[in-house]
Design brief:
Elements: E1 9-12, E2 15-18, H1 29-33, E3 36-46, E4 51-55, H2 57-70, H3 79-93, E5 99-107, E6 119-127, E7 139-147, H4 164-176, E8 181-185, E9 198-203, E10 206-209, H5 220-232, E11 237-239, H6 246-249, E12 252-257, E13 261-268, E14 271-272, H7 280-293, E15 304-306
The chain binds pyridoxal-5'-phosphate.
Length: about 300
């Protein structure tokens, strides 16, 4: 049975409950300090096969466990428990369409910002199609005046709720100044990533993206794109620092992430990217990506976990 956004079913601490009943302690460290780590996971519906596929689940759970370790949380859940909870709650909702799942491990109880536990978890799926409005070909971005957090202060590698204050500042500034989104520079003055996505450019047919040491999240979508570009599309890929001025002379640019998928960036700081329209390489990668995640490319079935 499908349910609406307000009445969907949520997995909370081992029980599947209506969202209205999924409550937590307001004094908990997750509530007070954003002491939670999470994954945004996508599942894609294949109509022909009547199957819903979770995309790159083992990689999401490896990153979730890494976030817990870096954040020094009690390691409460096995990979099997993480996965079973996700499968159970999706089945309980009966979703047969593309969905997004928020899987969050949080510090509950009455502790402080330095508590390691008690650790609890919620898993919240919701229907979600393509992120970009079909009438909008791409985004107008600015380079943010806010610097991306770095591994020397709050590491962007830890996917912790509190990190998103940094993203919030950049996104708010961008919207207030008439842009759709922002691109961060890191403390070295090199291009890092978007507020909730990674960033790639194309120059002379080569795909270029900042390395994982450039103050970015180790993105699963970025990794997927690199592999598909190299192996399937035979596009040269380089992971290296990107200067701000390269954004003004590149041929194509796009943001990527599980939630965002692949979204062309058409203008940066008021300067058109290429001819100001989505580029061929971006579009080719996007098409391939959407086929792979929907279970239409046999070679990449191993990235998919069937739910039903
Ligand atoms: C800051 C940030 N960078 C990059 C990404 C993309 O990561 P992934 O492709 O694993 O979803 C996300 C999305 O979660 C993010 O929040």
């Amino acid at each position: 049975m499908s349910s609406n956004a307000e009445n969907r079913l949520i997995w909370l601490n081992g029980r599947i409950v209506n969202l209205q009943e999924a409550t937590i302690n307001v004094l908990s460290p997750t509530s007070q300090f954003g002491a939670n780590v999470f994954e945004g996971i996508r599942c894609y519906w294949n109509e022909d096969k009547q199957q819903l596929y979770a995309f790159r689940l083992p990689e999401h759970y490896k990153r979730l466990k890494n976030s817990m370790k870096m954040f020094r949380m009690e390691d409460k859940y096995s990979i099997d428990e993480l996965k079973q909870g996700l499968i159970d709650v999706i089945k309980a909702n009966g979703y047969k369409e593309d969905i997004a799942v928020r899987q969050t491990v949080f510090i509950d109880g009455f502790g402080s910002w330095m508590s390691k536990g008690p650790v609890n978890m919620f898993i919240a799926p919701i229907p979600k199609g393509r992120t970009l409005n079909p009438t909008k070909p791409g985004l107008k971005c600015c380079v943010s005046s806010w610097e991306r957090i770095s591994d020397k202060n709050i590491s962007p590698k830890v996917k912790v709720g509190a990190n998103y204050i940094n993203s919030r500042m950049a996104q708010m500034e961008a919207l207030e100044n008439g842009y759709d989104s922002a691109i961060f520079m890191n403390t070295q003055g090199k291009i890092a990533e978007g507020p909730g996505s990674c960033f790639l450019i194309v120059r002379d047919g080569t795909l270029i993206t900042p390395p994982v040491t450039a103050s970015i999240l180790e993105s699963i979508t970025r990794d997927t794109i690199i592999e598909l570009a190299k192996k399937e599309l035979k596009i040269k890929v380089i992971e290296r620092d990107i200067d701000r001025t390269e954004l003004y002379i590149c041929d194509e640019a796009f943001l990527c992430g599980s939630a965002m998928e692949i979204v062309p960036v058409l203008n940066i700081d008021g300067i058109a990217v290429g001819n100001g329209e989505p580029g061929d390489i971006t579009e080719t990668i996007k098409e391939m990506y959407l086929k792979v995640v929907h279970g239409e490319v046999k070679e990449y079935f191993y990235w998919l976990t069937p739910i039903y």
